[in-house]
Specification:
This protein has 82 residues and is an alpha+beta fold. The chain has one domain: Mth169, Chain: A. The chain is built from 2 helices and 3 strands. It is elongated and about 50 Å long. The termini are close together. The mean pLDDT is 97.
């Protein structure tokens, strides 16, 4: 059994209105040292696979086919054996 931690973020070239609004709100709360905010998604998947490479392949295909929009988003997968 493996746990896949998947981090999905907007590509740098894509405008992030949620991040911009959060940055503005943090500035209004007095957090002047915050330079930039980008908002993304975090997904946990439990994968019943016999090997790390099989689990990585399942997680990667899940991102490519459903979880991430590869035109606008980047993703990073971390696998942990449970």
């Amino acid at each position: 059994m493996f746990k896949a931690n998947i981090y999905i973020t907007l590509r740098e070239s894509i405008l992030d209105p949620k991040g911009k609004a959060s940055h503005h709100a943090l500035k209004n709360l007095g957090y002047d040292k915050v330079e930039k905010v980008r908002i993304g998604k975090f997904i946990e998947m439990d994968i019943d696979a016999s090997s790390e490479s099989e689990a990585k392949e399942i997680a990667q295909e899940s991102c490519q086919k459903l979880l991430a929009n590869e035109v606008m988003e980047n993703y990073r997968i971390e696998l942990v054996k449970e």
